[in-house]
User: Fold these one by one.
Assistant:
Number 1:
Amino acid sequence: MINEDARLPQDILHALPGANAVMKHGVEVDAARWRAELSKRGLPTLTGTLGNIDRTSLTRRDIFEVGDRDRTPDNAFQLFYYSLAWGLGLKAPRLHHRLDNFASHREEASTLLVSAWNAARNGESTKEAFSILTTEDGAGRIPWFGPAFSTKFLYFAQGAATDPRHLSLDRDVAASLARDAWPDATTDVWVPEVYEQYCTLLGGWAEEASADSSVDREVRADEIELALTRRA
């Protein structure tokens, strides 16, 4: 379990990237491959930034713009694609398996994604929102869309206009936290209660950093997440 009372590590405090750096943080994506794979399965094609570029750096700002759209099933598919592409990066391992399973569970996935999006935007708890996409034992309710990708979807579903409460969690962040607050950290499966503890911890660390005299500004919780990612 995560120690929610752990203090903010000094190296993380001194490595805070700032909100602009968070928004500019990008991942290389082969959008042409994505469009081809979606077309093979009769799935809606990509729109927006990834709709007409072959290869690009997909930034957090790009995906937040998708998260700011109207919460419709079509836009939920786009947010799914974008958050998954950002998590998988340029190589996008096992993309065909992921999209095969997504296509075969299309209607169920649409309902789950819209429900999770609404939960993130309507102020529901991190545990409740995560539970829409993840079972009590940490399995993804959409096949091949596991807990790490669920956290990314929820993170971007909040949109850019709010301070993030639902935060991205992956194996790098979990491994980085093992030395500070999560000694028995697992790197691939997280149950809803643990995800809630993680979000609470980073939210507390953001408040602690904001109050530090060496910082003198409001720190976003995703700055902590990015600093942990880079440390890993």
Note: Residues 37 and 96 are 7 Å apart (CA to CA).
Number 2:
Amino acid sequence: MKEFLKRKNIEISLKRYGIDAMAAMAQGLFCSLLIGTIIRTLGLQLGVSFLADIGKYAMAMSGPAMGVAIGYALKADPMVLFSLTAVGWAANAEGGAGGPLAVFVIAIAAAEAGKMVSKETKVDLLVTPFVTIVVGVALAKLIAPPIGQAASAFGLMIDRATNLQPFLMGIAVSVLVGVALTLPISSAALCAALSLTGLAGGAATAGCCAQMVGFAVMSFRENRWGGLVSQGLGTSMLQMPNIIKNPKIWIAPTLTAAITGPIATCIFKLQMNGEALNSGMGTCGLCGPIGVWTGWIAPSEAALAKGAVAMTPTAFDWIGLILISVILPAIIAPIINNVLRKIGWVKEGDLKLE
């Protein structure tokens, strides 16, 4: 069996499924639902129906995009990869609000099943897509609804807990999602799977921005402008090799998240009512702030289901978004890091990117 799995490039590991596949799923979501939402919102706000239609079509392809992205991460053969479009569509549709999590689980199972039979028969053109699609769509009908309901219920529980205890949950959600963003897993996919919107989504946004902007600014002396852009608009995951060498460099942005999270939930009532994916994006391509903006004027379906309504943002709302997303992390994280430098926990060069 080991030889067979090796020959089929089937690697049952946390890295392959929990890191590679999940990160790819987030990219699939980004290239369909997220970018489609942005285009559609721009079209609606500018009164350009053509743009709104483009965005709508891109958003509709989120299931197939996730399925194909996961298959690509699992190194699926072309026939398997193309068949995952149907699997992704079915799993996302059957999973409802928890569709991304359903796609994640089912696309992995279907891809691996397809890889097992790929190129094993003389009628591969029929067998491979047949097995991939039948296994995937059958699983979608059987287990996608309960997976979606469970994910949706858990996300709703987090949302309600944040509304009831905005201070404590503001800290918890901000810190945990922010840490997930810097780890080699996908915080965006996690937020999408849990349909994390509303006040909890706002706390998650605060935590992700704290990590990205915090690392970018506090490492400026080592990495200059290139590091500022690559971490501030790219990802704080670039610091993982340095975190492994000296975990104490993670203290400043994490404490910053613990500070900005409750400020977001208790003072500014910052809510992420755009697509849940944005809650875990931070300042990557400015998707976090853009998601908050789109949520103000055109709430996502998940946010609408939780009672969100379109609104006209006030000056206070804009000030809160800018402070939480950029200004506070850019001030607080370097201050904390300078204290850590003075006591010797962080040394010159510890934050240098290779």
Note: The chain has two domains: 2-152, 165-342.
